[in-house]
């Protein structure tokens, strides 16, 4: 890549400075503006980070125009076809695909950390029966910090590794406890002889009075969905984890902050909203009415599962999930799924509509994922929790990368102040 340089000129004073351009291995270069304030007394202004790279990272690359997603350089399509969730977790966190011994050790560390402290389990009794599982998940994950004082030195690499194993191993157990609490069913303990997704399904669906056998098709479908959700560079929740973690806060607090950010309907909460929207649309005849609502600037309604800040083309994860829907529904004997039929039709109509074409709005990862979650028996209120379980791996990888960087600084954005100028306090009697 040819080296670019930018000269910045203050047109009122004529003062000039050269801004450094940093090149990555792939994707657009960035203009370093760290000295802008020192040299020109200015800050940059970019609400919503429309054109701002917040950090340097080696974990995930997205080309939004081409619809490309690479984890540590490897295309998501290859990982989806050939890998499994724990191997992808290892890759994201450690930077390389594991050897046989390495994946064996990693899997063992995850599989044998699945239990949670009984006191932590009792927290669930404090939640209302109708508490949203995301509220329980973020609260209980933050509370984990109260249990591991002896291994929370963020500057100790071994402590960071233990944290990574603990959170990846225990978050399915916490999610399952939240689900069982909402159902009013007894908590089901993890089974360390099962693989990651089979154990999750066992904790969700087993009951003490019956034998429960995990369906391998379901476990495989879940594993694939988890691969597709594992990481997505500096999205809102990952940036939240980095920001909270940059203060030196304990990593459980940082992950809990990420879970809260993920919950929003503009982010991970969209998977729950998509299914609610499809149910609301009901039939293909109603699609034009809802598309008109989505295009109406006076209506808050948006086509959920459509559009993305980075992808201005098909989200490769949505393409994989759409194909997966056909296969999984057929294998489960649920091919005639009316919501899937409706989603396909909605996508087809929206992609021909001028409004969506002009704005380059395509289905994102959340558009089809709920169809599969539903088909394998996961209730709507748990969809975003499933996303959070998978994304924990990405959050951990980014937190680790940030903390291990000797140049790490607290993230502290600045602002453009538009409030009142300086004024004096007015006594109550004179107001
Ligand atoms: N339905 C209707 N119009 C939309 C949609 C949508 N889903 N998404 C974007 N637009 C329109 C906007 O109104 C805007 O139109 P305008 O230029 O006439 O004002 C234009 O497209 C650009 O949209 P922005 O909101 O400026 O794009 P931004 O990058 O800020 O937002 C977002 C991206 C939040 C994903 C948005 O597309 C959206 O709300 N989608 C629906 C929610 C969703 O599916 N979120 C999941 C994202 S994936 C994830 O986080 C896991």
Q: Indicate the multimeric state.
A: single chain
Instruction: Summarize the main sheet.
Output: 3 strands, antiparallel
- Average pLDDT, rounded to a whole number, is 95
**How would you sum up the global shape?**
globular
Query: What is the spatial order of strands in the main beta sheet?
Result: 1-2-3
Q: Give the tally of β-strands.
A: 6
Give the structural class: mainly alpha
Order of helices and strands: EEEHEEEHHHHHHHHHHHHHHHHH
Number of helices: 18
Small-molecule binders here are: acetyl coenzyme *A
**Cα distance, first to last residue?**
63 Å
State the low-pLDDT regions, or none: none
Describe, in short, the structure shown:
Helices cover 49% and strands 6% of the residues. The protein has 431 residues and is mainly alpha-helical.
Q: What attributes characterize this protein structure?
A:
binds acetyl coenzyme *A; 6% strand; three-stranded antiparallel β-sheet; 431 residues; mainly alpha; 18 helices
Per-chain topology:
Blueprint: E1 5-9, E2 16-22, E3 30-32, H1 36-40, E4 60-63, E5 68-71, E6 74-75, H2 76-82, H3 85-94, H4 100-111, H5 118-122, H6 133-143, H7 157-183, H8 196-205, H9 216-229, H10 236-245, H11 251-262, H12 270-281, H13 287-295, H14 316-331, H15 338-352, H16 354-358, H17 365-375, H18 383-404
Antiparallel strand pairs: 1-2, 2-3, 4-5, 5-6
Helix pairs in contact: 3-9, 3-18, 4-7, 6-7, 6-11, 7-8, 7-18, 8-9, 9-14, 9-17, 9-18, 10-11, 10-18, 11-18, 12-17, 14-17
